[in-house]
Design a protein that fits this description.
Layout (H helix, E strand, L loop, with lengths): L1 H8 L3 E2 L2 E2 L20 H6 L2 E4 L3 H10 L21 H6 L16 H28 L3 H15 L4 E5 L32 H33 L3 H12 L9 E5 L10 E4 L13 E2 L2 E2 H19 L8 H28 L3 H11 L2 H17 L3 H32 L3 E2 L2 H28 L1 E9 L8 E9 L2 H36 L6 E4 L16 H24 L2 H6 L4 H11 L3 H12 L3 H29 L10 H17 L4 E2 L1 H20 L7
Parallel strand pairs: 3-12
Antiparallel strand pairs: 1-2, 4-5, 4-6, 7-8, 9-13, 10-11
Helix pairs in contact: 3-10, 5-6, 5-7, 7-8, 9-10, 9-16, 10-11, 10-16, 12-13, 12-16, 12-20, 13-18, 13-19, 13-20, 13-21, 13-22, 14-15, 14-20, 14-21, 15-20, 18-22, 19-20, 21-22
Main location: membrane
GO molecular function, one term: calcium:proton antiporter activity
Protein name: VNX1 protein
C-alpha cells in the first residue's frame, strides 16, 4: 500500500522521511502543497504533522523513530505569528497600554496586595521621608510618594516618561509636568544648579535607590519562583533597572481611563494583572521556566553536598532529597540537548547520541550505587538497583501510559493510537522481559534453597518447620552452579538483548518504516516560510550535554552517599524506596512530555515514551550493568526476587491486552494506574530484601 501511494503522489524520499509534495511543487514551496483532504493525505491515510522548518521536521520525525528520545518542546524559535494569543501575552512587554480590558479587582491582584504590595508601598513611604529630610533629594521624595501609591495597587495605572520643557523662572514643575505655581524650590529642580542636582542624585543613589532595588530584587526572585506571578517579577525587574534610574521630573503616574490616546511620552510601566496561570508555557532561550528555576537547586546541592562533608549544615535526608530533585532539571537538559543534536544531525549521529546518552541518567545512578556497595561490602545497594530497574520497568509500562490515558481522556472522549507500532514495542517488551528474567527462572529451578532460621512447630523430629529469611543459594559447592551455569547464561543474555535491540531498530527504521504511517510535511501557511533559528547549536548542545552529565554523576554520587542512613532508619521496605523514588524521579521530564502529547490527542507518542524506556531498561541498561560488573566486580547479579518477576510479567501482559484494539479511554487508563498503585502497596508492605 505504501509503495502504491508513493507512486501515486510522487513523494520525495529525503533523510527526514517523506518531506514535501513533489506532485504539487518542489519541496521548499509550501504554498503549492495540497490541502490535507486531497492528494497525499487522502491516499496514504497517514498522521500528517506540519513543521515550521527542516530542523523541526527532523525533530518531529525522530519522535516517531524507535530508539529516539521523544521530545515535546521546540528546538527552534517559533515564528511570532504562529503563536497563540495566550502565548503572545506571556512575552508581551510591560510598556504596552491595552486600556481597560476587565476588572482590576481579581484574586491574583488581591494576592499581590497581600504578599508584596503593602510592604513595598510602606517602604517607598519611608524612603520618601528620608529623601525629604535630605532637602536636596526632595524631588526623589515626591517621586517615591507617588510610586508608593502605584506599587500598592499598580493595576489600571501606567507610569509615563514625558519630555519636560525648560522652565521659565519658577512657574513650572519639572517633576510630573504641568503648571505648579508656588512650588518650593528645593522640591523641584526647575531652577536648581548642576551642583545641587548632583548632590541630590548622589543622596538618592546612596540612601534611597539601594534599599528599593534590593526590595524589588527580592520581589522579583519570589515572584519568578512562583511562575504564575512572573508579571510581578517583570514589574519589579523593570522598576529596579530602569524606572528608578530615570530623572524624577520626567515621571508621572496616570490612571488608564484618564490617559490620552495615544499616550503622551514613553510608557515605562503598565501592568494589567499579577497572576497568569499560563506561564507554565513560558521559556527562556528555549528552556522551560521550571527547568530554569530548578537550575540553582543543582548548584546548591553540589555546594552543600561537597562543602558540608560532616553534615553540620544539613543531614543526610536533606542532602539525599536535594540530590534527587537536582536530577530532574538535569534530565530535562540532557533530553533537550539530545533532541537538539539529533534534529541538526543525520540519522547515524542521532542514533549514536540517543543510544549513548539516552539512558545516561539512570546508568549514572546505578553504577555509582554499585561501586559504593562493592567498596562497603553491602549487598543492599545491588538490591536497591534491582528494585529501581524493576520500578522503572513497571512504572513506564503501567503508570506513564495510564496517566496519559486518564489526562488525555478528560479532554478527548476516545483516543486512538497506532496498534501496529504498539505491537512492535509489545513484542520487544516480551522479548526483553523474558531475556532479563531467564537467569532468575534458571536459578529458581536449579538453585539450593537456604533458610536463615527454622523452628519445629510440631515439636516432633519429623514435624513441620517454620523457616525465615529463605533464598536460593547460587554459590553452593564452591560456586559451581553460579560460575559454570548462571554466569554464562547472564553473559549470553546480555549479548542477545542488545542484538535484539539493533534488530528492532533495523525493522522500524529501515525495512518497515510504513508501520508508523507518519508524514512530516514541510507545508506551512501560504506565504509564511521560515528558516530555522535553533535555540541551541550543535556545539552548545554538546557542551550542555557533557556538563549536565558531569553534574548528574556528582548528584548521583551524593544520593548514594547519603542513602545509607535512610535505608537503615526507614520504616518502609527498601523495595518500596527503590521502585518509587529512585525509579521515577529521573523519568519526570518524560512523564511531562507524555502528558503534553496526550493532551494534544497524540497518544501514540505517549505510549511510545513508556515503552521505549522500558525496552531500553531491559535491552541496554541491564546489559551495560552486566558488562560493568565484568570489569569492576560488584554484588550485582542478574537474579531478581519473585516479587520483581511477577510484577514485571503481569505488567507486560496487561499493557499488551490494552494495546489490542488500538483505542483507549480514561477508564482503561484508570485501570493501569490502579494496578500500578496496587503493586506499590505490595512493595510497601513487603519485607526488606535479605542483606539490607
Amino acid at each position: 500500500r505504501g509503495s502504491l501511494c508513493k507512486q501515486h503522489c510522487g513523494l520525495i524520499n529525503t533523510p527526514l522521511g517523506n518531506l514535501g509534495c513533489h506532485l504539487h511543487g518542489p519541496r521548499g514551496l509550501p504554498a503549492q502543497c495540497p490541502p490535507l483532504d486531497e492528494g497525499c493525505e487522502s491516499c496514504l491515510g497517514r498522521t500528517t504533522l506540519t513543521a515550521e522548518n527542516l530542523v523541526e521536521a527532523t525533530k518531529l520525525s525522530n519522535n516517531y523513530k524507535f530508539g529516539f528520545k521523544k521530545w515535546k518542546g521546540h528546538v527552534t524559535e517559533r515564528p511570532w505569528e504562529d503563536r497563540s494569543e495566550i502565548v503572545k501575552e506571556l512575552y508581551a512587554d510591560l510598556t504596552a497600554v491595552r486600556g481597560s480590558t476587565g476588572p482590576t479587582v481579581t484574586f491574583g491582584n488581591v494576592l499581590y496586595l497581600l504578599l508584596f504590595g503593602w510592604w513595598l508601598s510602606f517602604l517607598y513611604v519611608v524612603v520618601a521621608a528620608i529623601m525629604f529630610l535630605t532637602v536636596v533629594a526632595a524631588p526623589y521624595g515626591r517621586l517615591c510618594w507617588h510610586l508608593a501609591g502605584y506599587f500598592l495597587w499598580p493595576f489600571g495605572k501606567a507610569i509615563q516618561a514625558v519630555e519636560v520643557p525648560k522652565p521659565h523662572g519658577d512657574e513650572t514643575s519639572a517633576l510630573l509636568g504641568g503648571p505648579a505655581p508656588g512650588c518650593w524650590r528645593p522640591r523641584c529642580w526647575a531652577g536648581a544648579g548642576p551642583v545641587q542636582r548632583r548632590v541630590g542624585v548622589a543622596a538618592w543613589l546612596c540612601l534611597g535607590y539601594p534599599v528599593l532595588a534590593l526590595a524589588h530584587g527580592l520581589v522579583c526572585v519570589a515572584a519568578w519562583l512562583l511562575v504564575v506571578a512572573i508579571p510581578v517579577a517583570k514589574l519589579s525587574a523593570r522598576s529596579a533597572t530602569h524606572l528608578l534610574l530615570l530623572p524624577p521630573e520626567r515621571l508621572r503616574v496616570q490612571q488608564l481611563r484618564k490617559m490620552e490616546a495615544p499616550p503622551e511620552g514613553e510608557v515605562v510601566l503598565c501592568c494589567a494583572q499579577a497572576l497568569n496561570p499560563y506561564y507554565y508555557k513560558y521559556s527562556v532561550g528555549g528552556i522551560n521556566v521550571f527547568a530554569v528555576n530548578l537550575l540553582p537547586l543543582v548548584l546548591v546541592t553540589l555546594a552543600l553536598g561537597y562543602a558540608d562533608a560532616h553534615n553540620r549544615l544539613a543531614g543526610s535526608a536533606v542532602k539525599f532529597s536535594l540530590a534527587l530533585l537536582a536530577i530532574v532539571p538535569l534530565s530535562y537538559y540532557i533530553g533537550m540537548a539530545i533532541a537538539s543534536i539529533s534534529a541538526q544531525s543525520n540519522f547515524a549521529v542521532g542514533a549514536v547520541v540517543n543510544a549513548t546518552f539516552g539512558s545516561i541518567t539512570e546508568l549514572t545512578f546505578y553504577i555509582t550505587a554499585l561501586i559504593k556497595g562493592s567498596r562497603e561490602g553491602n549487598r543492599c545497594y545491588a538490591e536497591i538497583v534491582k528494585s529501581a530497574l524493576t520500578g522503572t520497568l513497571v512504572g513506564c509500562v503501567l503508570f506513564v501510559p495510564g496517566l496519559c490515558m486518564v489526562i488525555g481522556g478528560i479532554r478527548h472522549q476516545e483516543q486512538r493510537f497506532n496498534s501496529r507500532s504498539a505491537g512492535v514495542s509489545s513484542a520487544l517488551l516480551f522479548l526483553s522481559v523474558g531475556g532479563v528474567f531467564a537467569p532468575t527462572l534458571f536459578a529458581k529451578v536449579y538453585g539450593r534453597l537456604v533458610c536463615g532460621e527454622c523452628h519445629n512447630v510440631s515439636q516432633s523430629q519429623l514435624g513441620h518447620y517454620l523457616c525465615h529469611n529463605c533464598h536460593f543459594d547460587l554459590m553452593g559447592s564452591n560456586g559451581t552452579l553460579y560460575h559454570s551455569h548462571v554466569q554464562p547464561l547472564v553473559h549470553t543474555v546480555s549479548l542477545l538483548l542488545p542484538a535484539a535491540y539493533l534488530v528492532g531498530l533495523c525493522f522500524t527504521l529501515k525495512t518497515h518504516t510504513h508501520i508508523y504511517d507518519v508524514h512530516v510535511s514541510g507545508c506551512h501557511a501560504p506565504g509564511h516560510h521560515h528558516s530555522a533559528v535553533v535555540h541551541w547549536s550543535r556545539w552548545r548542545a554538546l557542551v550542555i550535554l557533557l556538563l549536565s552529565t558531569l553534574c548528574m554523576s556528582a548528584c548521583a554520587d551524593l544520593a548514594t552517599e547519603h542513602i545509607s542512613p535512610i535505608l537503615a532508619n526507614s520504616t518502609v521496605s527498601q523495595y518500596f524506596i527503590g521502585v518509587t523514588v529512585l525509579a521515577m524521579a529521573p523519568e519526570l521530564p518524560e512523564i511531562v512530555n507524555g502528558i503534553q502529547f496526550a493532551l494534544q490527542n497524540n497518544l501514540s507518542l505517549s505510549i511510545e515514551i513508556g515503552n521505549c524506556i522500558a525496552v531500553q531498561v531491559c535491552m541496554l541498561q541491564i546489559p551495560v550493568l552486566v558488562l560493568f560488573t565484568i570489569f569492576y566486580p560488584t554484588n550485582f547479579t542478574l537474579v531478581f526476587s519473585d516479587l520483581h518477576v511477577y510484577a514485571s510479567m503481569f505488567s507486560v501482559v496487561l499493557i499488551n491486552y490494552i494495546f489490542m484494539d488500538g483505542k483507549c479511554d480514561y477508564f482503561q487508563g484508570t485501570v493501569l494506574v490502579m494496578v500500578y498503585f496496587i503493586l506499590l502497596a505490595v512493595y510497601f508492605f513487603a519485607p526488606s530484601p535479605s542483606g539490607c
